[in-house]
Amino acid sequence: MPSTLKCPVCGGDFNFNPKGQNWKCEYCDHTGTEAEVAKFSAEAKQDPDKAADAGKREVSTDGDVTVTYKCAYCGAEVITTEDTAQTFCIYCQRPVTILSQVTGEFKPALVLPFRMVKDDALKQFKNFLQGKRFLPDAYCGDKNVDKLSGIYVPFWLFDGTMHFDFSGEGDIVSVRREGDFQIRQTDTYAITRKGSIGAENVPVDASSRIPDDIMDSIEPFKYEDLKQFSTPYLSGFLAQRFDVSKEDSFPRAKKRMEGSVDKHIASTLGKYSSVRPSRDEKTVDNVEGVYGLLPIWMLYSTFEGENYIFAMNGQTGKMLGNLPMDSKKVTKYRLMAFLFGGIGSALLGLLLYAMELF
């Protein structure tokens, strides 16, 4: 399919529209369904003039690899990281899909389309900034906000069956009164929990560039909306390919599955005041891992040499981020608190002294 979809009516860019879950021309507003897009994409076959593949590769001193691609529209060179699947030309702003990053071993099986448009993300981001008294004024400027980008982030989605065998002892404490005495009774019981739990679509971030805790914090995603991967879903957004293999990602998926089992077991032990495990074994089998792309609105920023990330689930709107603090504002606030605190103490002392006189 073409790396950049063209409107069948006017020839303008035909980008995926999260609001309507269809494709929409940014010039004539013509819309198309998935079936219609698939039809004219198939008729057009592959347009080699609008696709790009690896050009010059350079390795920086810190080990990062950059790759140069040529924009088919204006001829400018586009420089990006080697794990980028879709980017934009900085001159003409046309999207550039790097075919080698979404074919062969790097071709995703699934994609979860965006549902939140950029205006939604901008509104959420600005609301996120409100009330942050120590936030640097410059951080809220349009120049920073313009960095907000919709990115399809690579994930491995794991299925598996967790088997657990838990045993131990649990205490139930009861208290009663008999005459003038309060009797505390502890009954000890043998505990056994054994069974299996199926796990589906356990997500593991497959990009080493994005902190795992950020991605975990904006879950869950609604996986019932997963689609078979098709390049038209990338139109209008950036995308990355995985640089963490399925094999390297599985230990983290297994840990997450085990955590779900622990929560399940704990939910059955609420009546015990204390539990002493003697056996806690977990195994997993029937494991399958599928490569997919999940939608994230993300903003990278730097302030005083430190990196900060804001991320929003592109499907549900759930967000999380870390923000910089203006050290001058913090110092000013502490000074004011100290001064007013001192004045308050002095007034309290005068009040107590006056009370003693009378």
Please name the defining characteristics of this protein.
11-stranded mixed beta sheet, 17 strands, 3-stranded antiparallel beta sheet, globular, disordered C terminus, 24% helix, alpha+beta, single chain
Q: What does this entry look like structurally?
A:
The chain is an alpha+beta fold and 358 residues long. Among the domains are: 174 residues, no CATH class; 32 residues. It is 24% helix and 39% strand. The chain has six helices and 17 strands. Strands 4, 8, 9, 10, 11, 12, 13, 14, 15, 16 and 17 form an eleven-stranded mixed β-sheet that branches. A three-stranded antiparallel β-sheet has the order 1-2-3. A three-stranded antiparallel β-sheet has the order 5-6-7, with no helix packed on it. It is globular and about 90 Å long. It starts with 13 loop residues before the first strand and ends with a helix.
Average pLDDT over all residues: 78
How far the N terminus sits from the C terminus, by CA atoms, comes to: 91 Å
Radius of gyration: 28 Å
H and E order: EEEHEEEEEEEHHEEHEEHEEEH
The oligomeric status of these chains comes to: single chain
Separate helix tally: 6
Question: Shape from CA axes?
Answer: globular
